[in-house]
């Protein structure tokens, strides 16, 4: 039985998924960006911490106190990353990959707000909180993005798309290292720019399917219907190719059973 939306709708949704999967891969730069962006401006950030503490207490920070605060700013990100990763499976099973990735952007927006206004508020605690939030965001992304992209991609692209995540992270870290610390006097703005890929991710996810539309077209137990519906589409259409593959696979399974 043909889906109520028809094969044309399925083909459109499927192609949207294929087109947006590479765009989604580019969003892995968010992970690498937040890994690398904190390294370059640490010296400038240390000077700001000194000034901030003097404005509060009329005393400058000792070297050990400054090192301790900077250590918290750097390391709290990894704690957030582990928290996000630990709960990724729990939330994805209950709400689906796409829904969790959409909601996950809340952490990125909260972090961007805290980063953007930390200098105005004179609060290094806001940076620590922001790094925790963005760590949770990246932890969820690291576990869910490769799996989600592999889910919505056609079979011939699943391996490549699932593999691209780690190289994209490495490229973004390299890019930030090349920029160097001299161009990061507005380091709080650089930290807050994490909201840019988050907004892009939000827009892209809204037009991506929840899962591979192959699973939405026809009952698994009716390969003859799959072949019939595939015949309504051009042979070169990705949906038709995948329906034919699925029908043949189901027939082999039935014969083997």
UniProtKB/TrEMBL annotation:
Q: Domain of life, per the record? A: Eukaryota
Q: Which cellular component terms (GO) are annotated to the entry? A: membrane
Q: What is its main location?
A: membrane
GO MF terms held by the record: hexose transmembrane transporter activity
Q: Which residues cross the membrane?
A: 69-92, 99-117, 123-140, 160-179, 185-208
Question: Residue span of the signal peptide, if any?
Answer: none
| Membrane association type | Multi-pass membrane protein
The Major facilitator superfamily (MFS) profile domain, residue ranges: 20-257
Is Membrane one of the keywords UniProt gives this record? Answer: yes
Q: Where in the cell is it found?
A: Membrane
Question: Which keywords appear in this protein's UniProt record, sorted alphabetically?
Answer: Membrane, Sugar transport, Transmembrane, Transmembrane helix, Transport
Q: What is the protein's name according to its record?
A: Solute carrier family 2, facilitated glucose transporter member 5
Q: Which organism is it from?
A: Hyalella azteca (Amphipod)
């Amino acid at each position: 039985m043909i889906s109520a939306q028809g094969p044309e709708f399925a083909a459109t949704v499927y192609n949207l998924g294929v087109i947006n999967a590479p765009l989604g891969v580019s969003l892995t730069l968010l992970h690498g960006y937040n890994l690398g962006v904190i390294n370059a401006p640490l010296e400038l950030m240390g000077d700001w911490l000194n000034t901030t503490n003097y404005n509060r207490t009329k005393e400058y920070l000792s070297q050990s106190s400054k090192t301790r605060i900077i250590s918290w700013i750097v390391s709290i990100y990894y704690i957030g990353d582990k928290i996000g990763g630990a709960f990724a499976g729990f939330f994805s099973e209950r709400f689906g990959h796409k829904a969790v990735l959409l909601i996950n952007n809340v952490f990125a927006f909260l972090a961007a707000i805290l980063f953007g206004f930390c200098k105005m508020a004179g609060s290094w605690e806001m940076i620590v909180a922001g790094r925790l939030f963005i760590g949770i965001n990246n932890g969820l992304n690291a576990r869910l993005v490769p799996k989600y992209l592999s889910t919505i991609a056609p079979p011939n692209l699943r391996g490549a798309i699932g593999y691209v995540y780690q190289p994209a992270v490495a490229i973004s870290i390299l890019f930030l290292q090349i920029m160097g610390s001299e161009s990061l006097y507005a380091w709080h703005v650089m930290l807050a720019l994490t909201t840019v890929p988050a907004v892009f991710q939000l827009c892209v996810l809204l037009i991506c399917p929840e899962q591979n539309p192959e699973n939405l077209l026809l009952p698994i137990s009716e390969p003859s219907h799959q072949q019939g519906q595939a015949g309504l589409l051009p042979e070169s259409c990705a949906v038709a190719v995948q329906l034919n593959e699925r029908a043949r696979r189901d027939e082999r399974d039935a014969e083997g059973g």
